[in-house]
């Protein structure tokens, strides 16, 4: 499609104009599973500033790997440059939420900070998909299912959702207990892009666990691999234990990824991402059977 770009040179800012033009072209060339959702181009004058773009890129690359240490480092990189940048604020909120969910940050202050950052992002850019997703994630950490669903509905209604948006929503629904709804969103994400990251297998794994289809759940859990901190190993233990397939290596990996004894109990750690009591109980049964304290 033909697009126009109308800008003016003022005060010797021709390099900024070239930069903005290059950015527009880059957004148009991105597919829906880019490092930042294509929704960012809709902000026009509120696209990330030149100074914050590398930090946001760093965070989204870390998020794709869902490695706790990388996310923490990316969040530190984001913090100084995101104060008035709605995309940066949303990314920093995401990073704070994930850090809390995976036990990188153990204080409740992290949940409040994630919510505050997301609210600021929404106030600055009410039509930014990532801002509403971030606020939905923050509501999840405080077990506000209705408010979480409201933000996700807004995010999904802002335009044709990308596979990234659909599968993030799907994961949070499944973790919160609405696994049927999560399964629908995950299926839609795969239809749009079959090459989603490994951790989207969380949703079909959780759905299979609910149905008692442990062999299918185990297949899905193996495909999750070692991403998303202890969550992948936890789901693998939950599906392997009823089949008699839980290994000492799985148990060791889970134990190595959970907080140290005395800092937080395994039960509290598991309850952070797994709000669904069925999944939480399956995980804890497997954990107890392997002797992890």
Explain how this protein is built:
It is globular and about 50 Å long. The termini are far apart. The longest helix is centred in the N-terminal third of the chain and has 16 residues, at 14-29. It has 15 helices and no strands. It is mainly α.
Beta-strand proportion:
under 5%
Beta strands, count = 0
Largest sheet: none
Average of per-residue pLDDT values: 77
Morphology = globular
SS class: mainly alpha
The DSSP helix count reads 15
Cα radius of gyration in angstroms? 20 Å
- Distance N to C terminus: 59 Å
As an assembly, this protein is: single chain
- H and E order: HHHHHHHHHHHHHHH
Q: What percentage of residues falls in helices of 4 or more residues? A: 55-70%
Poorly predicted ranges: 1-5, 9-13, 23-51
Give short descriptive properties of this protein.
293 residues, mainly alpha, 15 helices, 63% helix, 0% strand, disordered N terminus
What's the short version?
This protein starts with 13 loop residues before the first helix and ends with a helix. The chain is built from 15 helices and no strands. The chain has helices at 14-29, 53-65, 68-78, 86-101, 109-124, 129-141, 145-157, 163-176, 179-192, 202-210, 214-224, 231-240, 248-257, 266-271, 277-290.
Helix/strand layout:
Blueprint: H1 14-29, H2 53-65, H3 68-78, H4 86-101, H5 109-124, H6 129-141, H7 145-157, H8 163-176, H9 179-192, H10 202-210, H11 214-224, H12 231-240, H13 248-257, H14 266-271, H15 277-290
Helix pairs in contact: 2-3, 2-4, 3-4, 4-5, 4-6, 5-6, 6-7, 6-8, 7-8, 8-9, 8-10, 9-10, 10-11, 10-12, 11-12, 12-13, 12-15
